[in-house]
Amino acid sequence: MASRSILPTDSIICGDCEQVLKDFPDDSVDLIITSPPYADARKKAYGGIHPNGYVDWFLPKTEQFLRILRPTGTFILNIKEKVVGGERHTYVLELILKMRQQGWLWTEEFVWHKKNCYPGKWPNRLRDAWERCLQFNKQKKFNMYQDKVMVPMGDWAKSRLRNLSDTDKRRDESKVQSGFGKNISNWLARDKAYPTNVLHLATECSNRNHSAAFPLSLPEWFIKLFTEEGGVVLDPFVGSGTSAVAAKRLKRRYIGIDINMGYCTESEKELQNEEEKAILEKTYSYCRPSPMSHR
Asked: Which strands sit side by side in the sheet containing 198-201, from one edge to the other?
């Protein structure tokens, strides 16, 4: 195990994250992003945690997350309730409440809309096309780089910004007093806007050997939003390495932990493939003649 004075960046560690993280230094990680095993899921790899015991199983882990996260850092938890006895179990809601008691701030909730969710028919519900991405922080002021995830303004702006009312030209309080005031005129000359908290991403990913791998675009988006180059990104349930690959691609330092040796091996393989791909791209870029050479 590593000393608390040393952070094992750019590595995949095989072990129980609850135990492994006890040797990590305090306030040392910029972003924790993970998709832990859902209740009664991935029994072969993680044992399958019953919904009634999920909160007690997860809280000792979030205690370590809270200790090692920087005061300006963020924890993103991708999770979704399962159906038990014909209704959604409340273990995710119970976990949120317990984490708040633990000292976390439940800052935001993002919705991952899975654009290509599997078709199907169930007797008492419709297709499940979204998952939660819960944002937790240690304090109200945290690092957030919204300009890095801006999106094209969209065609709606052509008609909406054409004729502005008087209230559009000042910071007008929402009619429902939500606290989200706005000044529409500030956006007249802009071609990009800040995104919403709904992420429209396909479920495709390159990792075929993991039963619940999220797409590379999901951790990439959060890494851009909450870290800068050189920042430390941790996934304590790294699975087949998607978040570690995303961090490496974006020039962040990564740490991946998983209790399953097969997933650790797969993560290392994915990271090696990413490194080889980067070397090839760099070589191709170096060898490719510039446009001026053809003149």
From this structure: 11-14, 253-258, 232-235, 29-34, 69-79, 130-137, 105-114, 198-201
Burial 26-43 (b: 16+ CB within 10 A, else e): eebbbbbbbbbbbbeebe
Confidence of residue 278 (pLDDT cuts 50, 70, 90): confident
Residue 67 has pLDDT above 90, yes or no: yes
pLDDT of residue 44: 53
Q: In the chain, what are the domain boundaries?
A: 11-150+195-287, 154-193
Q: Pairing between strand 105-114 and 87-88?
A: unpaired
- For the cut 70, the answer to whether the pLDDT of residue 27 exceeds it is yes
Q: Are 195 and 109 in contact (CB under 8 A)?
A: no
11-150+195-287 CATH: 3.40.50.150
